[in-house]
Automatic annotation (TrEMBL), chains A, D:
It comes from Arthrobacter bambusae. This is Dihydroxyacetone kinase-like protein. Residues 6-206 form the DhaL domain. Its EC number is 2.7.1.121. The lineage of its organism: Bacteria, Bacillati, Actinomycetota, Actinomycetes, Micrococcales. GO terms for molecular function: phosphoenolpyruvate-glycerone phosphotransferase activity.
TrEMBL record, chains B, C:
The keyword Glycosyltransferase does not apply. Its EC number is 2.7.1.121. Pathway: Polyol metabolism; glycerol degradation. Homodimer. The dihydroxyacetone kinase complex is composed of a homodimer of DhaM, a homodimer of DhaK and the subunit DhaL. Keywords: Glycerol metabolism, Kinase, Transferase. It catalyses: dihydroxyacetone + phosphoenolpyruvate = dihydroxyacetone phosphate + pyruvate. GO terms for cellular component: cytosol. It comes from Arthrobacter bambusae. This is phosphoenolpyruvate--glycerone phosphotransferase. One of its GO terms (biological process) is glycerol catabolic process. The lineage of its organism: Bacteria, Bacillati, Actinomycetota, Actinomycetes, Micrococcales.
Length: 220, 333, 333, 220
């Protein structure tokens, strides 16, 4: 069975929870090589997403992600706001009006999201940005989908790859975003945007696993 | 963290509200989304100037809204660029039909949010031109960064472009003046202490008693490198020399010298820096025709300063001298 | 202690030198003894205003030398009132024959040094009148202190008396205006941190993360009492209530509201305080007709603020609005 | 034998030395209940005294003290400048043109100095000011002189009483000067001006003892 709008809203709710719980951690990461606001901005943004979902419950996964995109765009600010806003908007566009999403569609939506971030931010792999979480995640998702995994499996693979990708930013020297001003001094710290991307994709996987459990589908 | 605030999450709202109350003769404050416009805007036939950015740099930008400078300012959360849903209505509110200039400090977040806003405002039929300020010589302008940051020089761009708009220049002409300032201004800063973002609650960085950060931006981020504390004269050389180098200031040239406080350094110390900076310029044969000393582009309560030099010509000097009436910069009226 | 200085003993000399270089169009700086006079002084036929005090309160006083305000400022060592051998020549330099007003903040040292200087200037044939500023409500005006201190209200006295002098009032009349301001202005301050006098090298006092000092002066001295940290709104009440009480402000009265930074507090926080102060005044039915927000009477890099309220009448308002052109306060020209 | 101009210049030199040596201590005392400048101001002032003595060596004790008064008045600033300036000026006036000072004259000069401080500062005994050192010192000096002590004995008595008086300011609540703004919080700290007065009178005694030793007179 594919993922429905319930998964999408669960994902966004778990994302909001994750941003709230990891707010201080993301601030701390940003404090080291940026300006101490990433956790605060993401938390504020996802609170706005929750409010938007409450005001007008979406009918499709695409509609849910589009609502999230608008809320993030208008409430996060900084670099992450337009980047995540674009990511969610491109994912929403990629999903279209579909009410159920299969593994391939899901992987394609993640790729569209990533491509949106690249289109806006022009970062390449290894620049020590959220792309370093997105790109391995997309690769892993596509591989899983091609290998016949179900949506839960696709998201599990994406989340794990994003986490590994985020950790792999630690030794890198930033070449995009605020951390790039630090030059060599940016090495030795995890990129906050890569860390938040990993958290968001982990939330996506958890939401899928939860939906799957509810509807009685085996998550594995 | 000890601050004169009520709640870290209401800092910007309450501060801008108070600002609006204190300067009700000059500005109107819009809430939800939050932005500040010049009283009586749009000014018929005048090109409008809009700037904005993260809060925490006060008086930048809202303090520069008024006659001869900005028509609107859009404050984001502390150190967070504002969002398109603030920038778009601010842009619309001040457009008289003559078009709007967005003055954007070069940071990824500011660029992306203003870019989106400009696109959407254009779609609504407003002519928008963006001018990017990137005066920080601490950041090498290479492929391996997001480019030079916009820092202290921003206030000079806003003042001078504002004067061009006020005298009736066209959209292209005002943008040209602004870009001329950007080409001719360079800045470099030093921090003696970090600053504490209210929602973070801990200092942006910690410096030992004998350490300073050279080449800082204006967001409490660490600088390019950390060195042992030095006397004010030595620090002044460290900041000013690369600025003059980069600008290629030659004997006989006229400049504006701007010593900007980061917020927590006493004015008396800024004048000690100004003294040495003016001496260095004199030694090089440059003429300091205009000066500005004070806290104009700050990083909350950070201790430190930046030095900006703007190469002047007769037109820039005349535009600098033109009347301005804003909460934080005022003369001639 | 980290400061943008070269040598603790040359702080005042170098700072005033830099100040003079930055504002060469407005002031002349005399050295040995050190004092600052308005360009072109003495102004023929005009009563001259001289003020001074310890350094460390910048822009007070030198920042207020110029058209419509002070004719001379006499800076002492940091937090140390100047000496007669500075005050006397400053007084002589600006006397046009119309007489000189000494505006003196009420501290034993300032009073004694200005008293001596006035006596000696009188002996040289200069008419001198002294006006004592004592606006601090934190200090009970009793037999058991040296009387109330002069703090933030000083800048209001200097501006308004300066306007009276500029319009041609006689010595007695200017003194009367100044005394009228003193009678109608009250101030109270709070510190969130101490400050470090350069030659002392350690903070004037240490406060825990959750402590603030209420009822401070402007010399880094501890206040009347130490309390637990509170929100900005609560602190604002603590400062403003006694001020209004003491002044006896009634519904319908017009006031000038002045939120003054002690030097190390961001402007954004001053506006948060201003917001609540204006609300409190509105709740009491008072009308805030004029406002001033910024770092005008500081204690080096101390974090904190003071709130001053001046009861206005039409004459005081007109004098406040009169043109002024000094390095730190400028409007109408 | 009475005290000569050599004693007076020795006194001022030893005073300058004392102010330099106790500069930090006096700053610390002033930091607790004042504005951290007393030690700095006194040090600066007495350096100016030294310079003045150098430029124009005085011929009489009175001339030395008058030169000191002028230097202190123009270089110390704050409350202490005019107060000490007046004290030294009044002492100088009291000594007149005398070239040798006996015990009675000396005690009278100290009383004149003290009266000058009172005239300027209006402080009473117990207000926690330098008067709390001056007044016991003057009393002790007058008693010693009346009891037949020589100048060295007079100054020894004065210095000791000043030191005791300064210590006795510790528990007092200040009622004059900057410390008075602290109210009750001024208790528990020594008054910096009283402390500097004690140091200056100790220097006077040491100078006298030194002169006495040099001229072969028994100091006791
Ligand atoms: N050009 C870019 N492309 C992709 N991601 C970027 C780019 N610039 C910044 N980022 C991401 O944004 C994160 C910072 O977000 P945030 O702190 O919210 O914004 P800001 O840097 O404006 O304060 C970085 O950690 C990085 O992952
Ligand atoms: N009215 C007064 N009478 C006598 N002594 C005083 C008076 N006021 C202050 N003093 C003395 O002056 C000392 C402070 O001197 P100083 O720190 O140099 O000046 P200021 O208080 O102006 O900073 C006090 O410790 C006290 O002994
Ligand atoms: Mg950030
Ligand atoms: Mg930011
Ligand atoms: Mg003092
Ligand atoms: Mg003192």
């Amino acid at each position: 069975m594919g993922l429905t709008v319930d998964w999408a809203t669960d994902w966004l709710k778990l994302s909001a929870k994750a941003m709230e719980e990891h707010r201080v951690e993301l601030i701390e990461l940003d404090r080291a090589i940026g300006d101490s606001d990433h956790g605060e901005n993401m938390d504020r943004g996802f609170q706005a997403v929750l409010q938007k979902l409450d005001e007008a419950p979406p009918e499709t996964p695409g509609a849910a992600l589009k609502a999230a995109a608008m809320a993030l765009m208008s409430k996060v600010g900084g670099a992450a706001g337009p980047l995540y806003g674009t990511a969610y908007l491109r994912a929403a566009t990629s999903l279209g009006d579909a009410t159920e999403i299969d593994a391939e569609t899901l992987a394609a939506a993640l790729a569209a999201a990533r491509d949106g971030v690249v289109a806006r931010g022009k970062a390449e792999l290894g620049d020590k940005t959220m792309i370093d979480a997105w790109t391995p995640a997309v690769d892993a998702a596509q591989k899983a989908a091609a290998g016949g995994a179900d949506p839960v499996g696709v998201l599990e693979a994406a989340a794990e790859a994003a986490e590994t990708g985020a950790m792999a930013t630690d030794p890198l020297v930033a070449r995009k975003g605020r951390a790039s001003y630090l030059g060599e001094r940016s090495a030795g710290h995890r990129d906050p945007g890569a860390a938040s991307t990993a958290l968001l994709l982990r939330a996506a996987a958890a939401a899928a696993a939860g939906s799957a459990a509810e509807t009685g589908t085996d998550a594995v | 963290m000890k601050k004169l605030i009520n709640d870290p999450r209401s800092v910007v709202d309450e501060s801008v509200e108070g600002f609006g109350m204190a300067h009700a003769d000059l500005v109107d404050v819009h809430t939800d989304p939050i932005f500040v416009v010049r009283k009586g805007a749009p000014v018929a036939g005048k090109v409008a100037l809009v700037s904005g950015g993260g809060s925490g740099h006060e008086p930048l930008h809202a303090g520069f809204v008024g006659h001869g400078m900005l028509d609107a300012a859009v404050p984001g959360a502390v150190f967070t660029s504002p969002t398109p849903d603030q920038i778009i209505p601010a842009t619309a509110a001040v457009d008289s039909g003559a078009g709007v200039i967005h003055i954007v400090k070069n940071y990824t977040g500011d660029v992306l949010n203003f870019e989106t806003a400009a696109e959407m405002a254009q779609a609504e039929g407003i002519s928008v031109r963006s001018v990017l300020v990137n005066d920080d010589v601490a950041v090498e302008d290479s492929l391996y960064t997001a480019g030079r940051r916009g820092v202290g020089g921003t206030v000079l761009v806003e003042k001078i472009a504002g004067a061009a708009a006020e005298r009736g220049d066209s959209l292209e002409a005002v943008a040209g003046v602004a870009e001329g300032v950007v080409r001719n201004v360079r800045t470099m800063g030093v921090a003696l202490s970090g600053c504490t973002v209210p929602h973070a609650g801990v200092p942006s960085f910690e410096l030992a008693e004998d350490e300073i950060e050279i080449g800082i931006g204006i967001h409490g981020e660490p600088g390019r490198h950390r060195i042992a504390m030095e006397g004010a004269d030595a620090i002044t050389s460290r900041l000013l020399d690369p600025v003059l180098e980069d600008l290629g200031i030659k004997a006989g040239e006229e400049v504006l010298l701007f010593v900007n406080g980061m917020g927590g350094t006493p004015l008396s110390e800024l004048y000690i820096v100004y003294r040495r900076a003016a001496q260095i310029l004199a030694e090089r044969g440059a003429k300091v025709e205009r000066s500005l000393v004070g806290n104009y582009v700050t990083s909350l309560e950070m201790q430190g300063c930046s030095i900006s030099v703007l190469r002047l010509d007769d037109e820039l000097t005349a535009l600098w001298d033109a009347p301005v009436h804003t909460p934080a910069l005022r003369w001639g009226m």
